[in-house]
Write the structure tokens for this entry.
Amino acid sequence: MDFLKPLYDEELNSEGDVEIVGSVFARSRILGELEPQTYTLSFSEWVEERKANLIQKADEILALYDNKNRFEQLKKSLKAGAAMPFVGAGFSVPSGYPGWTAFLYQICEESHVPKEELDNLLKVGEYEQAAQALHNDLGAALFNENLEGVFSSDKEIFGAVHYLPHLFPTTTVITTNYDRLLERVFKGVEQGFDVVKYGNSLNEVVRLMTNGSRMLLKLHGECDQIADRVLLKAEYEGAYADGATASNFFSRVLFAKSILFVGCSLCADRTVANMISLVEKYKAETLPRHYAFLELKADDDRVARKKGLAAANIFPIWYPEGEHDESIEALFVKLMED
């Protein structure tokens, strides 16, 4: 758990630097360099105390609604190697990457698209059309340069994303994110992914999954590769049409393992719509159940949302609004318990 050391150091340094004969030193540096064994022991004790606090937080979350039984079923699937994560933009935000809505507003400020037009499109969930409007206004070159400039940067990694290689060391990871955060996280803990697939090559995925390859599936491509990208309205329609690459992918992978959605809002989402159509076609009882860690907002109709997700065979584990980072980490630590 070395990724926790910056947080531990931050806590050590919270009482301020130490000045010695006009030179200033961080407390973590003094302890780490002069008493490395003490530093290591103190860090281990801090990790255990933090773990206990997070498990307590997870227990509080699991006591809400009908979370607990659902979580236990997810944990069984994970232990059996029958679960894989679907990672959304919420896992990249702690590291400084903007969420998709924030990115659209960011480039809107540099365009002639009125903010009110973007507001109206996003209010009704027309994210693809919003991206298309900005692309049409800025032109392909400027729009693509903005996308690549924001999502290709290697930012310092923060947040619960660090736990993914420990929870899913040998399985397939799915994402719709355009950044390269997952590649960097897994390379730092394991040996990285054996295979990265996206775009038109998704048709090969099911065969590779049976070979035991550690794969990253980037459903919507890379920020700097336009040919396999799924971002604009026309690109979505091409990828998710009946018989198209993304549609075929879901029809195959849905029979493989349970999926855990993390960092995904699952609102007005092509993924959910595609899964609903497949559940209607193949029937829920023939498919694995899928799960999602979801923030329950104050204005959400929880039961209505749960019914809507169940149509896609997705079952939510709710956590309180405004507690995203701590709640996800707590649930991950609880999954790693035992």
